[in-house]
Protein: DUF3107 domain-containing protein
Organism: Lysinibacter cavernae
Amino acid sequence: MEIRIGIINAPREVSFESSESASDIEKTVGLALETGSMVVKLTDSKGKVFLIPTASIAYVEIGSDQSRRVGFVG
């Protein structure tokens, strides 16, 4: 699952792969924003932890659960 998080006033986005489902990530980010938490904590597929300040989040893009196709589409 590819995750992209846009940060306010930052030229680049935070992008990483996660082994969590799209619904789990959506719940985690949504709960952090609703409760007024200072940071949202996400973990990538390699075990790295990302602490992102909720006040700085511009957008969150969650990729689909489908794997990418390999080869040519005809």
